[in-house]
Each structure stands twice: as structure tokens, then as C-alpha cells.
Records
---
Amino acid sequence: MSDSPHTLTCPSCGADNPAGMSFCAACGAPLIFPSAAPEPPPAAPRPAHIPTAEETARKQRQEVITAMIIEIAAGIFGFLGIGWIFAGKTGQGVILLISGCAAILFGAVVGLITGGIGFVCFCLYPIFPVLSGIWLKSVMEKDRGL
Ligand SMILES: [Zn+2]
């Protein structure tokens, strides 16, 4: 068999026929011209991966944990509400951010005045981001039906 453009291979019997023939000289089957052959349809784009319910739940749980970690980590550095903003709960996040800053300022002032009590407050401060993170986690889980 030849792949030369001057011959056509019979799809029925495999005989080579001169280009231009409509029917196979050997068996009489209609010859398909390469140029006339219908192009194979372009490969359909792969359907987007449809996540299973389990994958979706796992992803949502990861988002919840990430938001909680951000809330606790940023909160310990004095920025409450960052995790809430990350989770799309901007309103609560901004309120927490403002009240967190106010609480730190208040704590600093009280600490300056009282000394020891202020230091105790300072040591207790990380409770707030942890509580805020746990609260955020429960709110997000409720939102997502987890
Ligand atoms: Zn043939």
C-alpha cells in the first residue's frame, strides 16, 4: 500500500487506485477522496470536572479551617475579623476589627494605669481571636450545612 498522494487506497479491499478514480478498479467499491473525506469532528472539550458532594464538602471544610486559622493568627497579632472578611462576612469582620483595635487601645491604656491588671488582660487577649475563630467556624459550617 502506498500513501502517495497520486494513489487512493480502496477502503474496501486495500488496492491502490490512481487518483481521480471514483470506484476501485479491483472491487468496484466507491473510493473516498482524502480531501472529500469528512473531517473528524474536533474533540469535544473535556467536560469540566463536576465535583462530587464529598469533594465539595471537603473543600468547604478546608475553607472553614483556613478562615479559622487566619482569624486566630491575625487576631493574635491584634487584627480580629480578618478571617471573617476572608470568609466573605465583611460586615462582622469590620466590626470585629474595629472593636478589636479599640479593645487593644483600651487594654493598653488600662495597662498603663494599672500595671499588673493590664498585663493579665494582655495575657488573656489571645482568648478573643480563638473564640472569634471558633465562632466563625461554627457560622461557616452552619452556612454550608456541614
Ligand atoms: Zn477495492
Note: The chain has two domains: 1-34, 53-144.
---
Amino acid sequence: MTSAAALVSGFTPRDNKVSQPYRRNSSSSVDSDDSSNASETPISYATDPERPAGQPTPRTTKQKVDRRPPSTFHLKKRSEMSWAERLCDLATCPTTMHELKDDSIDRGPPPIQPAWKENVFVLTRGMVPIVLHQLAYWAFPQYKWPFALAYPFYVLSFIGFALQVMDRLSSHCVKLGTFDEKQIGRDRTPDKSVKHLAYGVTAYMFIRTGIAFWLDYDKNVEPLTSFTWTYPLRLAAWELTLDYFFYVYHRASHEIDSLWFIHQHHHTTKHPTAILAILAEEWQEVLEVFLIPFLSSAIVPMTFSEGYMTLCYTIYVEMMGHSGVRAHWCHPVLWPLETVGMGLAVEDHDLHHRFGKSGKNYGKQSRVWDRVFGTCAERIETYGM
Ligand SMILES: [Zn+2]
């Protein structure tokens, strides 16, 4: 059985004097509470290979024993990593995000992140391939990009966009801190999930871009001029449609015991980082990466360029919601819903992960459906904001 309990191992906080990497002894007792009995060299969850020798290793949780599954792949040299480890290592966060913060730190109230800034970020990065495609269209009007050229170009652009989102969120987590940071640092990608996550990320990039090509790509249409003034409205409608289907499947997988296996792997993290947005079982990936966005695109029409920008906004919000950045950081498009208590902010999905199977805050783009069906939870650190 793959479950949080099965993933939990005898992962113990490193003694400050120990500076060896974690090595599991096959004869060790894996669920022991007593670190003194562990016949293995433990390592702190916040270990950084760049840390100078002799420097004290920071704590990662207030609990006596850090029960999160081990994550040591990031300590390897890149030349010794598998392709999956290299891919996940691209999303390795700064060590400070995994450290427990001292009670004496006073950051004040979480700041409000302006939506316009995030729209500028998404539009200036997300529009790059569309603008380049348009320039090529103008420079060589006789040559229209076939699928074989356009598809890999947009997939690579989408990967580049996701990496920029990751960097932005991580840098803000370092600057502003993370939710619940005085109880526990953010989780790392567990060793056991690396391969699964790498396949999930790869599938996400190729399939979501593929949906836009399948439904809307026409090589004769100029990419830049295919936006219309109704796009912002259709983008909002698409996100809310996606969120409805997501809400239904998500709540069902939490509340119907026999469906929990679909979603269980995603909840092995209670304090995720942006890349863990994509950690999931195969069934969840089929639903979230393909079926739900496909249904949304079938209901709310888009041109290809609009569809690509919609992908950028969607992955941005999914990564934002899992980043844990300590700010009142709302959906860049659906932020007006915040005025009626239906907007989504980072803390909403962060709390969802902390609740685990017991649920609340099932929406991932808004709190519209949570409000309608009574499954909203009160915010804690951004209460009243
Ligand atoms: Zn969930």
C-alpha cells in the first residue's frame, strides 16, 4: 500500500555534530521514535551540500523526530543523478525554506501581493513564445509552422515558464517566509517519489500543451492577433469551470474512502513546495492533467494562443497554491472574488494540505465552490485580509 504511513520512515533529525549524508542501514528499525536506537547516520531535512563543514545544522521541525520521508537525492553530484533526480533537482528550493524558524523572528503581518504585479509577470513570460512565433510569421509569411515544429517549441517554452515561476515563488519564500514556518520547514521531494514526480511533470508539460494543439492549433492563424477582447472573461470562465470539475473530483476523493487512493499520494506532503503541486498517483494525473482541462476547454472556447496563455495562468496558480509563501497572494485573474469571500489565496490550499484527508478548501483556482457547498476553512495567518 502506498500511503503516508508507508512512506514514513525512521528519518531522524541530525545530531549537530554529525555531518555525514543520510545512509539507510537495511537492518534499521524504520518506525522507531527513539533516534538513539537508530543504527543509521541521520541527516537533517535542511542539509545543504554547500554548507561549510562544522557549521551547525538547523532544525527542521518542532517535533522531536522529523517523520517526513527521507530526501537525499539532492545531495548527490549531478553527474551521479538519474534523469528523474536531475529533473526534480531543477526545482530544489533554497535550504532556508526547509528550516524551522525561531520563535523570536517577527515578520509582522503577511504582506499583500498586488495582482497587477503577478499579471505583468505571467504575461511578460508567458507571451514570449507567442511573440516569437508571430515575428517568424511576419518574417517568413510563406512558411507556416507545422505541428512538428510548433509543438516542441511551445512545450519547451512552457517548461521554461514553469521554471521561472518556481524561481519567483522560491525567492519570495526566502524573502517573506513561509506559512507555519515556526512549527516546521517546507517539505522536500521524498526520494521515494522522485521517479513518480518526474514522470508526472513530463506528462503534465506534454499533455497540457498537447490539449491546446489538439483542440485549437491552426498553422494559418497569426498567433498574436488571435486574442480578442473577450479573452479575460473567457479565461475567468475557464478557470471557474475547471475549478468546478476539480472540486467535484477532489472532494469525492477525500470523502469517499474507496476513492482516496486516487489522491493519497498527493497528500503525503503537508507543507508542500511549488513542484509538489504535480505529485500524484496515475489516476489523479489522468484526471487533473488531461480530463478536467480537456472538459473545460471543450466548454469554454479559446483560440490556440489564448489556450496557451490559459495554461500558463493555470500552472502559475497551481504552483502558487503549493508554494507556501507567507503573503496574502491571490489568484491574478480571479482576485475580484476576494471582495465577496470567494477568492483563492496561497494560505487556502496550504491549509488544505495540513488538514489531510479530513478536507476543507477543495478549490484550487477559487473558493467559489467551497463557499457554495460549505467547505471553506478560516484562514489563520492571513485571517481577515
Ligand atoms: Zn486534497
Note: The chain has a mean pLDDT of 85.
